[in-house]
């Protein structure tokens, strides 16, 4: 350390407090200059205040796309195929938010996980959901459903005959997909044995092998499965319609932007219904379904 350094400390500490104050007192500023400086500072700060005031409400609106969960294996409604999310309901969701000038990002998940993420507020919403009292309590639903579809009770073709689902299911084993809702009439029953599977495909395999008496599946998703898996083709037949629900995009009650996104979705749905775009999407997928063997 330089020899002069200790001397500086010694000089400072030997001075009286009054002398130190006088030594380090800031230079005085003329009053006129101070007033001009104060006014200039205010005029520089005023635009910032106005900008903040005007942008306050908008600051709560997200600029980055918010994440919605899309079921990853429920074609032709929604599935992750060929590296992207495809399906009728995915097309409807994208069209609605596009019509409302609201960017969203669709991420694929298994349905049960997708709904749990939305329940916890980790994503803004999830589709496709058939409402029941539990769904209505745990999630926000928009005014407009995505579509309506038939849930059918499937049996092996060699045992298939039309049945009354109310009577036929008592005491029987029925394959159901994890997390799916099948309507109050079925979901509240305690007189049957539910065999949970991760995918509709596994339910039909169990039915094929005689491990369950029936499998529940939506008509169009079952037809798609049979066309994609030749080992299932021609082996099953629907014997009853269990429910014909409306399917929804369910929004989280815990995600901070979910309510805003729900409002934008309803606005977009209103616009595509009025413009005819919604019906064009339904017609396009209906033709594709009719072409499926």
From TrEMBL:
Superkingdom to which the source organism belongs: Bacteria
One Pfam family, short name: SBP_bac_3
UniProt cross-references to SUPFAM superfamilies, sorted A to Z: Periplasmic binding protein-like II (SSF53850)
Keyword Transmembrane helix: yes
Bilayer-spanning residue ranges: 42-61
Keywords, ordered alphabetically: Membrane, Signal, Transmembrane, Transmembrane helix
Record-annotated Solute-binding protein family 3/N-terminal domain positions: 66-286
Protein biosynthesis found in the keyword field: no
Protein family membership: Belongs to the bacterial solute-binding protein 3 family.
Protein name as catalogued: Transporter substrate-binding domain-containing protein
